[in-house]
């Protein structure tokens, strides 16, 4: 995979080298090359496939938020779960995340959906599947990405420093079921999608609970407030 010109943070690369050497990753690389050669548009663009890992190096991870697939609409996905580029309409799930954050912390909803500011502080915004074909939801599932991101979660789980795992929805909760809850904080709730958010997502206080846990362990809390002016994104 790294031979395609897709760069990866060195600490993650070392930790995940066994995965890159495995046959399933070679099969995944071949699948993606075949899709591109067939003229299919793949999101996010190649340099952003590992953006979540590059913005949040392994030793810097303080919080993990799990998503499922990248957005499949043009211009949306940029390598961070739940996040979209500035200027793109904020997706409904993220609208609900902002509502919960305002209720929890009093932070007014941002006017954009770019969560880069979180990632740079140690919030690993990880999708289970890192690519998708334009307009074809879930089109790259079961091609190998799930096994790779399982390994990413396992790397974080093995870290000595306690981490907060925020698992919204049954998919994320099942995927990270092996996380050691005796060392890490595991926060669970319904998915923020409009289809399920009113089944208990609201009122979960995920953001304040995450910061309280970090501070209890002598770690810097996350500044969840998103800047209105663009950072280096």
Automatic annotation (TrEMBL):
It is an enzyme of class 3 (hydrolase). SMART domains: UDG, UreE_C. The active site is at 69 (proton acceptor). Its main location: cytoplasm. CDD domains: UDG-F1-like (cd10027). SUPFAM superfamilies: Uracil-DNA glycosylase-like. Residues 54-214 form the Uracil-DNA glycosylase-like domain. Keywords: Cytoplasm, DNA damage, DNA repair, Glycosidase, Hydrolase. Gene3D superfamilies: Uracil-DNA glycosylase-like domain. It is found in: Cytoplasm. GO terms for molecular function: uracil DNA N-glycosylase activity. Its EC number is 3.2.2.27. Pfam families: UDG. It catalyses: Hydrolyzes single-stranded DNA or mismatched double-stranded DNA and polynucleotides, releasing free uracil. It comes from the Bacteria. Excises uracil residues from the DNA which can arise as a result of misincorporation of dUMP residues by DNA polymerase or due to deamination of cytosine. Belongs to the uracil-DNA glycosylase (UDG) superfamily. UNG family. NCBIfam families: PRK05254.1-1, PRK05254.1-2, PRK05254.1-4, PRK05254.1-5, ung. This is Uracil-DNA glycosylase. It comes from Acetobacter conturbans. The gene is ung.
